[in-house]
Each structure stands twice: as C-alpha cells, then as structure tokens.
Specification:
two-stranded antiparallel sheet, 4 strands, 2% strand
Length: 434
C-alpha cells in the first residue's frame, strides 16, 4: 500500500550553491479509493486543554500516611444487622408467610393430583394392553433407550415404591397409636320392657368395680410349698475340676537340693549334674586354693582386680561379691582374676567379656613392664610372663587390634588397641624361655 509523502531533490554539484537547496515538491497524488491511511494533522492546542500533572503526595508530620476513616462496617457487624433486620421482617410478614404457605400447600396438592391422574391413566392403559403388546413395548424401550438411562429409571421406581410403602406403614402406625374414640366403640342398649324398642345409652359414665383387699383378702391354700422343697426335680450336677498336686517345700540348705529340685519340677528332662556343679557350695579344695593360710602361691594362681592391681589372699577374701570380682573359677570364694583365666576369657564369643579381658590384661602388662611387681628377674615376674606366653595373650591382643573396627566389634578393637598401647608404654618386652 502506497504511503503519501514528499520527495526532496538536492543539487550537490556546485559548492557555491551548497548552502541553497532547491526543494521541488511534487504535486500531491490523488487519493486512491483503496487507500485507508490519511495524512496526520496536528491541531493547535487550546487554552482549555489541561496538561497531566504529577501526583501530589500528602505530607504528614510523623512521616506516615494519615489514618483513613472507613465507612464500611465489619463483617460481624453486618451479619448482626442482617439478622436483626431479618427478625423484624419475619415479625412483620407473618400474615404474608401464612398466605405463602397456604399457596405452596395448594400448589403441592395440585401437583400431586396431577401426578396421580397421570399415574392412573398409565395404569389403565397398561391394563388394556395384552401381554404381547407389553413385551413389544418393553423391547422397544430397551432397544431405544441407553442402558444408563434405563438403570436410573428403575432405581427411581424402586425408591418411589419404598417411599409409598413407608408412608402407608407410617399411616397405619399413627392410626394404631391414636387413642380410641367414642365413635369407634359404640354402645347399644336394649329396653326389655318395651316391644323391641331400643333406648339410648345413659349419659352417666359407668363406674368400674373397685376391689378392696381388706374386705376380700386373698388367702393362699394351705398345701402350697416352695419349689426347692419339691423332691420330684433331679438334683443339680456337681462339677469337679482337677487340681494339681501341691509340690513339697524344698530347703536350699539341703545337700540334695539340686537332685530334689530336678525330680520335683523337671522330672521329664535328662539330668546333668556337671551342668549344675557351679550351683553347689565350694568344697575344701576350692576354698584352700587361695586361702590366706597358704605360705607359697604359684604365679598362675595370683589374682588381679580390673585395674591390674595384685590382690593378696587376705584382701581377696574380704572383698564382697557386689564388686563383680567373684566368678565360678578354680577358687569361687576368692575375688579377682588370674592371668590364665583372663587369657581364656579373651577368647570368649561375647564381646563384653572380651572387652573386660583386654582391658585388664593391658593394665597388668603395663604394671609388669614398669616393674610394679618387682624386677624382671624376680620369680613372680618371670612366672607371670610365662603365663602370658602360654596363654598367647600378646598374639590375641595384636590380632584384635590389627583387625580394625570395620570387620569386628568396634569396642573390642578399641580396648585391644588400648591394651597393646599400654604394653608398649610399659616397655613392650616379651618373655623368653631360658
């Protein structure tokens, strides 16, 4: 589409005439019929035209915008006003409401009459049809209507039948609950003096007879007896519940306590006296194994506490069992652990027992290496080093420490590492057979 404009011709050949430009304006072309864009014309601005001005901000003394009073009420107040106005309208429009209710009841009655009329016509039409016509009409409905629509119609028909049954049952129930009226119970009286004439019933109420218990007392016959004294009924059965025999009381101080315990409570289980030997009181040999009356004690029988300190027999016999140093070993009455017992406990399958053994052995090795128990060539120190070598204590500790915490129990690895560190801190010596 052509756009109207002007064409300029500028002559650049002469330098003198460079300042003067000859402008040749082509005559304005004629406007074509298909041109929709016209020239843009600027109109002069009149004095009545108001230019847009920037917004003015109201200044406040405290720098914050001033409070604006709202004419709108809160929602709670609006609801309360609405409720009050509704109550007033209800009080004023009670006659109108009564008239409206009467009109609505008349409309409902008219609608129900119309429905009943339609239902009556449909039932009459169905009664005039033969069975073939009924089957043909049903087939046409089944083929012409969608299954979902037919299902909705059947549900609606069932609901209407249920409602009609409920209404009829409710009507019958209300009739049953109504008090009997005078019209339902009519009284007829015959005048026997007259010749078949019927006289009206008297207006006075018929008085019901009154029975006085004092005038006519009820005396039971003399041969009445209670049901419990009648011998013709069978005696009630007696129930018998078997009771287990009461076991005899056992005396823990009895020497045969274990055998009697097994025969009384566990007669069907096999008897193993060796498994219960730890429950028997210690014999004389076990008591004398670490007795204070001994003159010489072997290094393998010397006992230590959990801190690695040596326990002499007199001190060991005075420690109470609550300290946790008593166990079922060679001397149950003596407190403490020997080096062979700790070496055996370090190979236990329970991690907690292994941790106790590792920790105690590490402390014993530290004290043994630093000379707490005497010089290295002392008979006691040599005997203890021999017990350590025979029980392979150092091999067990180094193996557990080198295993790491990832492949085994982390607590056992920590206590074994601590025991190896204490052994090296004490000198790291090993006993050599001479």
């Amino acid at each position: 589409m052509a756009v109207r404009g002007q064409r300029f011709h500028i002559d650049l050949d002469s330098d003198q005439e460079s300042s003067q430009q000859q402008i040749v304006v082509d005559p304005a072309p004629t406007r074509s019929a298909c041109s929709l864009v016209a020239d843009i014309q600027e109109r002069p601005m009149s004095s009545a035209t108001r230019l847009p001005s920037p917004p003015k901000i109201k200044s406040s003394p405290n720098g914050f915008p001033a409070h604006r009073k709202r004419s709108r009420f809160s929602q709670l107040k609006q609801e309360s006003n609405r409720a009050n106005s509704a109550d007033g309208r209800e009080q004023q429009s009670e006659p109108q409401a009564a008239a409206r209710i009467s009109l609505s009841s008349e409309e409902k009655q008219t609608k129900s009459d119309g429905w009943q009329e339609i239902d009556r016509e449909n039932r009459q039409r169905i009664a005039e049809m033969s069975s073939d016509d009924i089957h043909q009409a049903r087939r046409e409905l089944m083929t012409g209507l969608s299954p979902s629509f037919i299902e909705r119609l059947l549900k609606k028909a069932n609901i209407e039948e249920d409602q009609s049954v409920e209404r009829s049952s409710a009507t019958g129930a209300t009739r049953e609950n109504l008090p009997p009226s005078d019209s339902m119970h009519k009284k007829v009286a015959f005048n026997l003096n007259g010749a078949g004439t019927i006289s009206p019933p008297p207006s006075a109420d018929i008085e019901s007879p009154v029975f006085d218990s004092q005038e006519n007392p009820i005396n039971p016959p003399s041969d009445i007896q209670p049901v419990s004294s009648f011998s013709g009924y069978p005696a009630p059965p007696s129930f018998h519940f078997p009771r287990p025999p009461t076991p005899p009381s056992l005396d823990p101080e009895d020497p045969d306590f274990l055998s009697k315990l097994h025969s009384t409570y566990f007669p069907s289980l096999p008897s193993n006296p060796n498994a219960l030997s730890w429950m028997q009181p210690p014999d004389a040999a076990e008591i004398e194994a670490y007795s204070p009356s001994l003159d010489n004690i072997l290094p393998s029988a010397v006992r230590f506490d959990f801190r690695g300190r040596l326990l002499p027999p007199r001190l060991s016999s005075q420690i109470p069992p609550t300290k946790g140093l008593h166990h079922h070993g060679t001397a149950p009455e003596a407190a403490g652990y020997t080096v062979p017992e700790l070496a055996h406990l370090s190979r236990s399958s329970f991690p907690s027992q292994r941790c106790i053994a590792y920790q105690t052995l590490g402390r014993i090795l530290y004290r043994l290496g630093t000379g707490v128990f005497g010089p290295e060539d002392h008979e006691l120190c040599q005997g203890l080093w021999k017990c350590v070598e025979q029980g392979r204590v150092l091999d067990t500790l180094t193996t557990e420490a080198a295993r790491g915490g990832e492949s085994g129990n982390r607590t056992c690895w920590v206590t074994a590492t601590e025991a190896v560190w204490l052994w090296r801190k004490g000198g790291g010596r090993k006993w050599k057979a001479t």
